[in-house]
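Figure 6 in text form: structure in, sequence out.
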């Protein structure tokens, strides 16, 4: 650990002396700038996923066990809880992934089957829903029932896929909703129609299905994920004639450990070249690509304190980068609700920028 830190420090100072990185100014836009750590205090919030709407300056925190979403204006403190019929307070569902589509202003929520995760992949038969929310009208656009397309995939392959959590979108407003227990991607059109888009055979160890894709992100029409089973990057062009033939996988360059990612997220301030990978452990790995993710390089770890929980997601809020802390061990058993009220969010902006400077990317976020 000390060895890796020393190397990282060395390469940072080296690139400084060779070529000073160009500093780009990143304005917070119309939203009030934010910096420093904060808590979101709401009983049983347990936010596993969160994202930010920079048009209306509101953060959306998924409440994992309640299957609600807390929408909050972090500068005024104004907040409200969004509920979804048949889903909220229904313990069949966990709301994990939360994802803002900057192109359409939609916010997506994953209302996924809880048992798939709490059973560690032993029970993969439960239902899943995919929610699209309009941040301008404050209305649900659709709640898509994924069960018939998942059954179709089961009939096609003989495998049970489940463990939905993350999503990404293309330039045409389609969303791609991904399973991690068995790697599959379902396409959901702007009006909410789901179809099978891509899949690979699940990986099993001793009869138990393993987690492949924790997160997915898009840059333009390119979908990218990291396979937690083998640590390899996965890239697919959504406009390819045959995704099953055109996808690629490759190793992450310069990675000192096998990288494991939960949410993978490209902060808008870096224009798709930097991705933050929440490592479900001690922080957020910072990944870099300068060729639209045909190759990628590990830059380092932005460590966070995590206060007894683990980081599962990161997000740019106005002009700063934040990681959450999720507490999976507060309940009577793993992945069950506890009685916590304060949920810490850690400002990792400067730690991330320290790493991006090694590849000549520097941003003045003031
Ligand atoms: C974080 O965890 C990784 C393994 O996932 C380890 O290699 C690294 O040393 C840890 N870093 C710190 C700062 O604890
Ligand atoms: C968050 O809440 C905890 C108590 O639950 C407290 O110890 C900590 O100081 C708070 N952090 C911030 C940034 O307010
Ligand atoms: C979660 O549910 C509990 C119990 O109904 C309620 O008191 C709390 O306000 C809810 N929190 C959220 C964020 O939905
Ligand atoms: C909870 O969800 C399950 C699965 O969709 C459904 O069968 C059940 O009716 C729901 N329960 C409530 C109280 O909404
Ligand atoms: C949100 O609603 C507005 C007004 O009806 C519409 O113009 C816009 O396309 C909607 N956006 C999404 C993502 O549904
Ligand atoms: C699989 O099962 C065998 C026999 O019980 C055991 O030795 C091995 O450690 C298991 N492998 C894993 C990865 O759990
Ligand atoms: C949460 O608090 C309630 C009410 O005090 C208690 O019955 C329950 O056991 C607590 N849950 C946990 C996981 O500690």
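Output sequence:
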């Amino acid at each position: 650990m000390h060895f890796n830190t020393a190397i990282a420090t060395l390469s940072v100072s080296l690139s400084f002396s060779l070529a000073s990185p160009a500093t780009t100014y990143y304005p917070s836009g119309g939203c009030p700038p934010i910096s420093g750590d904060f808590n979101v205090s709401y009983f049983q919030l347990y936010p596993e996923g969160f994202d930010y709407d920079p048009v209306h300056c509101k953060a959306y925190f998924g409440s994992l066990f309640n299957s609600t979403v807390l929408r909050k204006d972090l500068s005024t403190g104004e907040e409200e809880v969004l509920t979804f019929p048949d889903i909220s307070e229904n313990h069949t569902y966990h709301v994990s992934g939360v994802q803002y589509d900057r192109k359409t202003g939609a916010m997506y929520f994953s209302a996924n089957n809880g048992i798939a995760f709490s059973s560690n992949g032993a029970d993969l038969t439960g239902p899943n829903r995919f929610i699209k929310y309009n941040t301008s009208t404050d209305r649900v656009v659709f709640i898509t029932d994924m069960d018939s397309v998942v059954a179709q995939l089961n009939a096609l392959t003989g495998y049970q896929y489940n463990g939905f959590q993350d999503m990404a979108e293309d330039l045409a407003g389609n969303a791609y909703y991904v399973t991690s227990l068995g790697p599959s991607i379902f396409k959901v059109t702007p009006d909410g129609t789901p179809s099978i888009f891509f899949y690979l055979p699940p990986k099993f160890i001793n009869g138990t299905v393993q987690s492949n894709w924790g997160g997915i992100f898009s840059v333009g029409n390119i979908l990218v994920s990291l396979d937690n089973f083998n640590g390899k990057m996965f890239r697919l062009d959504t406009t390819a004639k045959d995704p099953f033939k055109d996808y690629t996988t490759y190793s992450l360059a310069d990675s000192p450990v096998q990288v494991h990612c939960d949410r993978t997220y490209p902060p808008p301030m870096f224009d798709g070249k930097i991705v933050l990978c929440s490592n479900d452990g001690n922080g957020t790995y910072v990944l870099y690509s300068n060729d639209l993710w045909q190759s990628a390089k590990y830059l380092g770890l932005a460590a966070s304190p995590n206060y007894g929980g683990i980081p599962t997601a990161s997000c740019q809020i106005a002009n700063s980068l934040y990681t959450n802390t999720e507490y999976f061990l507060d309940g009577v058993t793993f992945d069950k609700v506890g009685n916590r009220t304060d949920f810490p969010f850690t400002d990792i902006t400067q730690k991330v920028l320290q790493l991006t400077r090694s590849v000549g990317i520097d941003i003045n976020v003031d």
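Caption detail: The pocket of 2-acetamido-2-deoxy-beta-D-glucopyranose (ligand 7) is lined by residues 331-332, 338-339 (CB under 6 Å).
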